[in-house]
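Margin note from the TA: students keep mixing up input and output lines. Inputs are the sequences; the output is the structure of the whole complex. Example:
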Amino acid sequence: MVKPDNFVINSMYSMDFLCGYWEGSYTTSEISSSTQIAHALGFIPLCTGVYSYDGGITWVPFHPAGSFISGGVFTSVYSDADKVWLFVANFTGSQVTVNYRIFGFQPSDATSPVPIPAQTNDFTINTMNNYAKVVAMGKVNISDLTINAESTLVTHDLGYVPEALVWMDFTGDGVRTCVEVESIYYASGEEDTTWSYFCKTSSALRYFLRSSSMKDGPINALHYRIYGDQNG
Amino acid sequence: MANIKTSNFNIHSLFPMPVAVGEVEVSVTVPGGSADGYRARADINLPIGADFFRTSVTSSRSGRTYAGSYVKEKYSTDDVFIADIRATGSGGIEALAGVYSYNIGTTSQSITYTFHIQAYKLQ
């Protein structure tokens, strides 16, 4: 862990915290569009979160492929060095307002400290709460992984399947961004060379990289965070 | 030490922190012979409203547990499955599995997706 001093309280495992939280709404036209939210974190945050396409009644996790149960509104979140990008793919044929909650985490290789938010006194730790604990986090370069095989990103040996979040670190149009990953598994066929998946076991987090075009393409690295909570 | 209110001794975090508030597991099955567009749904309650959730999905056919809330699996030229979740207005979770491709007939085998969902609030 590069910056252990960023953890306010140390338990047996580092307690998770957000380096950024962005909440709001964005109205898109009848076609797809994006908006940006400025940040001054000094690094590229690892973002996750949820969005609503019906005024805050239903909430769907962000992911790049979009959800097929989101009423024709597919929303994903990206981040770069000074902005968080919200991209809305709108297939409804009419104007849509998207409500969003975006949660940012500090990547393991960040060297600058996290700016302390202004509302410090609002964050009171309560021992009745079960705070998320990080048991492992890191960054793996794509160039170090094997094509057409499950590469072990990290061995955790917890004895159960833990929670894990993984982001792709890639460069497109000259801008380095991070986006949360999804899993696409093909048991056979060569129709799509862009698929990959993340597999969790009771001992390790693994990644399957399908093609050399992905390895030599815009993806540079993977960021992972493994939590102590059992999830599978 | 004087007997004073322990509530005076609060610990303040410098940053917001995720708090686990619930854990649920639900399975959804897509039967063999399902056509494109078939959707199977299952609703499950979360006892406390959550700000966000983290999900794993285990596939009965591949035996794999995937990270993330969205999974797409393809087993032959005919069988394409998807799994996804959303939080509903009633405070619950709707898990969904279905057939995705636009050019298949029907799926040859059934498949069950088990969703493992951890719900979180911010302190």
